[in-house]
Amino acid sequence: MPRAASFLPLNSSSATTATTYSKAEKSKRPLLATSTSNARLPLLVFCFISLTIGLAGTIFAVSALRRPRPLPVFRCGRIHDTFRAFYSLSNPQPDLLDRPKVLGFVGIQTGFSSANRRSALRSTWFPSDPDGLLRLEQATGLAFRFVIGRSEDVKKMAELQKEVEKYRDFMLIDVREEYLNLPHKTLAFFKAAFELFDADYYVKADDDIYLRPDRLSTLLAKERSHLLTYIGCMKKGPVITDPKMKWYEKSGHLIGNEYFLHAYGPIYVLSKEVVASLAAARNNRFVTHETCLINAIVFVPLSEGGSI
């Protein structure tokens, strides 16, 4: 006959071991949970510190970008303001020697063959003597100069020197004065004007216009919402690639079939922020056409201020 299954009672030592093991297991479980939470605490602190640093950096970057930056002054070669040089010799005054603050500086672009045009302007709206030029500047806040470069022709330079000594109304810049070099002259003019005058606006004008200084002053005195401002006419047109034509563009293959929208006309205005960016350009090789000078500007129609 099969034996009946017999169940042996657990001895005291076995019971003690089981009881001890159960207590040990129970005591280990909360220790594991505590150690896990302790390990997460430094990670949470690190994440919080990183988030704080990131937010602080973002706030600092935004405040730095919104903070107005001082406009630097750049050297652009030899410049001679015959008007202020004349007054500084006879009656030295700090405002005539330093970089004067004016509402606008108007540079009348002229050449060696334009003596008759300068004479016509001096007999109409442009003062023909230094005292009259100074009074106009004080009345309108606008400084006016004829802007001209240099020539290798000794006779032309001698004739210009006589005119300079008579009228004292020139800004002489160190660029070669010729038609094909006008883009470089324009850039040199803005750099020179920015170096000599602390103006809110810089005006480039031709020497065959009749200007109303009072109306120009009223136009420039208006408040505008944009710092980068252009006032004048805009146009675009085809690039002339025929070498036989007058307006032949040597670098036409770099521009394309049509010029982009650009400044045009016998007179236009740039705000000092735009001119500061032009003055900061160290490399002049990008200038292939006068229209390439103005970049990232805000267009303000001339009709906003009426005729000037």
Fraction in beta strands: 15-25%
Global shape: elongated
What is the averaged pLDDT score? 79
Helix content: 40-55%
How many angstroms separate the termini? 132 Å
Rg (CA only): 38 Å
Secondary-structure element string? HEHHEHHEHEHEHEHEHE
**Largest beta-sheet characterization:** 8 strands, mixed
Strand order, main sheet: write it out. Answer: 1-4-3-2-5-7-6-8
Per DSSP, the total helix count is 10
Number of strands: 8
Low-confidence stretches: 5-10, 12-18, 70-75, 285-308
Summarize the structure.
The protein has 308 residues and is of the alpha/beta class. Helices cover 44% and strands 19% of the residues.
For the structure shown, list the relevant keywords:
308 residues; alpha/beta; 8-stranded mixed beta sheet; 10 helices; 8 strands; 19% strand; elongated
